[in-house]
Design goal:
By secondary structure, this protein is α/β, with parallel strands linked by helices.
C-alpha cells in the first residue's frame, strides 16, 4: 500500500456558541465572514441542539473576532464547500478540510491549524487486522468527496468503494454488514466507535494529513488576514486551549 505523509502542525482556538446565519454576502461588503462547513464531523464541527460546536467552529469565531467581523455559518454538503468558496458564494471553508494538490487548483489554503490521521474502522473479530489487509476486494465505506474517498479510490479502485453523504452513514453500513471497513479521520472515528458497540479502530493509520482554511484564489487580502490571525492565536495559546477542550490529552 502507498504510504502518504502530508505534514505537521497544531490546532485550534477560543470557545463560543454560534447561531445559524442566513445569506452569503461577501466579507468585504458587509463585514460578515461567511463560513461553509459540514456539521457532521465531531469534534471539528457538529450540531448541539440548534448551535454549532467544535474545533473548527471556535477557530472561525476567534478569527472573525480578530478581524472585527461577524461570523455566519452555512451548513452544506461536504463536496460543495470548495466549489462554493471558489465561486465566491462563501468567504471561507472549514470542515476538517485537508490540503491536497487537487483542491489547491481551485482554492488557496491558509497556514495549517491542525494535523489529522485517516484511520480504518472495522467490526470486532474482523479479518482485517491492519491497513495492509485492505485490497481491491475489500468493501470500503467512505464519506463522499473526503480524502478518505480520494485516497482509497486511488489505492483500490472504484469497485472497492461505497460512498455515503455522511461519515455516520458509512459507519451504520459497517454495523449492518454492508461494508467491511470505513476509512475516516481519526477524531470522528473515535466518536463513532464510542457510539456504536462492536466496532474498533485499527492500530495502523492509513495516512497523515493537514487541515487548513480554504479561501478563493482572488482573495489574497482575506487569506493574509486569516494567516495573521492564526499566527496570533497559536502564539497566545488559544489553539492549544481549544484542542484540549475537544481532544483531551491521552
Amino acid at each position: 500500500m502507498k504510504k502518504r505523509i502530508i505534514s505537521v502542525a497544531l490546532m485550534a482556538v477560543l470557545a463560543m456558541g454560534l447561531m445559524v446565519g442566513c445569506g452569503s454576502n461577501k466579507a468585504e461588503e458587509d463585514n460578515t465572514l461567511v463560513m461553509a462547513t459540514n456539521a457532521t464531523f465531531p469534534p471539528y464541527e457538529y450540531m448541539e441542539g440548534d448551535q454549532y460546536q467544535g474545533i473548527d467552529i471556535e477557530i472561525a469565531q476567534a478569527i472573525a473576532e480578530e478581524l472585527g467581523m461577524t461570523l455566519e455559518i452555512q451548513d452544506v454538503e461536504f463536496g460543495s464547500i470548495v466549489g462554493g468558496v471558489q465561486s465566491g458564494k462563501f468567504d471561507i471553508g472549514m470542515a476538517g478540510l485537508t490540503v491536497t494538490d487537487e483542491r489547491k487548483q481551485s482554492v488557496n489554503f491558509s497556514n495549517t491549524y491542525a494535523t489529522a490521521k485517516q484511520v480504518v474502522i472495522v467490526t470486532e473479530g474482523s479479518s482485517i487486522a491492519s491497513v495492509d489487509d485492505l485490497s481491491e476486494k475489500t468493501r470500503i465505506g467512505v464519506q463522499q468527496d473526503t480524502t478518505g474517498d480520494i485516497y482509497t479510490t486511488d489505492d483500490y479502485g472504484e469497485d472497492a468503494i461505497t460512498r455515503y453523504n455522511k461519515g455516520a452513514d458509512a459507519v451504520q453500513a459497517l454495523v449492518a454488514g454492508k461494508v467491511d471497513c470505513v476509512v475516516i479521520d481519526s477524531e470522528p472515528a473515535k466518536a463513532f466507535v464510542e457510539a456504536n458497540d462492536g466496532l474498533k479502530i485499527l492500530d495502523t493509520e492509513y495516512v497523515e494529513e493537514e487541515y487548513a482554511i480554504c479561501v478563493a484564489k482572488d482573495n489574497d487580502e482575506l487569506l493574509n488576514q486569516i494567516n495573521d490571525a492564526l499566527d496570533k492565536l497559536k502564539s497566545n495559546g488559544t489553539i492549544d486551549e481549544i484542542v484540549a477542550k475537544y481532544i483531551p490529552a491521552e
